[in-house]
Write a structure and sequence with these properties.
Blueprint (H helix, E strand, L loop, with lengths): L2 E2 L2 H21 L5 E7 L3 H17 L2 E7 L5 H13 L5 E4 L9 H5 L13 H9 L8 H12 L8 E5 L6 H10 L3 E5 L6 H6 L3 E4 L17 E4 L3 E2 L5 E2 L4 H4 L5 E2 L7 H20 L1
Parallel strand pairs: 1-11, 2-3, 2-4, 5-6, 5-7, 7-8, 8-11
Antiparallel strand pairs: 9-10
Helix pairs in contact: 1-10, 2-10, 6-7, 6-10
Pathway: One-carbon metabolism; tetrahydrofolate interconversion
Function: Catalyzes the oxidation of 5,10-methylenetetrahydrofolate to 5,10-methenyltetrahydrofolate and then the hydrolysis of 5,10-methenyltetrahydrofolate to 10-formyltetrahydrofolate.
Subunit structure: Homodimer.
């Protein structure tokens, strides 16, 4: 049976470091602060907001909220972002997306100062991921994948890694981050020919396909480390990943469960980015 790469263990270690950094900043008179901007009343946004707020409280990070109506004008939202950009007491900003259709999301995203962009919303932050420069922050989910690999001592140097999925939210940034760890990376997508054989060649597999159980035992072999980013609801109404866990666990060397894997780490990564943003500003 595979070793389970549990998010709670990674989160506990990460939280310890974040809390210590936050306390060190406070000793210098800096109170690391996250600003959450939410447009409308989307239930999933509210749920994530609740978790982020609680994690901030636990780790000693302040959290301010700006709640705007669903029909907010583009001008008002841009003015709100301009205001938080200019507020030196706010170090990180989380804007929930997707935005309502009457808003130009690209314009609004890129209005945010990349230095405060703690979940890689801006083109500037994404350029930092692809160039390796210290601009903004990477998306929280692929960063959570890297935190799991680091925590469990999984060395990527010289390893073959496959990322299933090519979105800018997870797939492409994860590939760049694995390259930074000296892995040799292949990205699979819907047009990949004979994907199972490509994935079987990998030592490390990150799956962000967006489809429940799409990666099964035909994709896998002994000795692999599998990071499952997917969060889906199956026919029985239970949360499940993009990997068929029951078929994968007897085969691979290590695997993240869903729930209890990557998702449980992302909120701490977000708060860690806020603290790091404060450190950069006052270094």
């Amino acid at each position: 049976m595979a070793k389970r790469l549990l998010g709670k263990e990674v989160t506990a270690a990460l939280n310890e470091r974040i809390k210590a950094d936050a306390e060190a900043l406070k000793a210098k008179g800096v109170n690391p602060t996250l600003c959450i901007i939410r447009v409308g009343e989307n239930e999933s946004d509210i749920s994530y907001e609740r978790g982020a707020t609680k994690r901030c409280e636990t780790l000693g990070v302040a959290c301010e909220k700006i709640l705007l109506p669903e029909d907010v004008s583009q001008e008002e939202l841009l003015a709100t972002i301009d205001k938080v950009n200019k507020n030196d007491q706010i170090h990180g900003v989380l804007l929930f997306r997707p935005l309502p259709k009457h808003l130009d999301q690209s314009v609004i995203e890129n209005a945010l100062d990349p230095a405060k962009d703690v979940d890689c919303m801006t083109d500037g932050s994404m350029s930092g991921v692809f160039t390796g420069k210290n601009v903004g922050f990477p998306p929280c989910t692929p960063q959570a994948c890297m935190e799991i690999l680091d925590h469990y001592g999984i060395d990527c140097t010289g390893k073959k890694a496959v990322v299933v999925g090519r979105s800018l939210v997870v797939g492409k940034p994860a590939a760049m981050m694995l390259i930074k760890k000296n892995a040799t990376v292949t990205v699979c997508h819907t047009r990949t020919v004979d994907m199972p054989s490509v994935v079987r060649e990998a030592d490390i597999v990150i799956v962000a396909a967006g489809r429940a159980g799409v990666v099964d035992d035909t994709y896998l072999r002994a000795g692999q480390v599998v990071i499952d980013v997917g969060i889906n609801v199956n026919a029985e109404g239970k949360l499940c990943g993009d990997v068929d866990f029951e078929k994968a666990e007897p085969i691979v060397e290590a695997i993240t469960p869903v729930p209890g894997g990557v998702g449980s780490v992302t909120t701490s990564v977000l708060v860690g980015h806020v603290v790091e943003a404060a450190k950069r500003k006052f270094a």
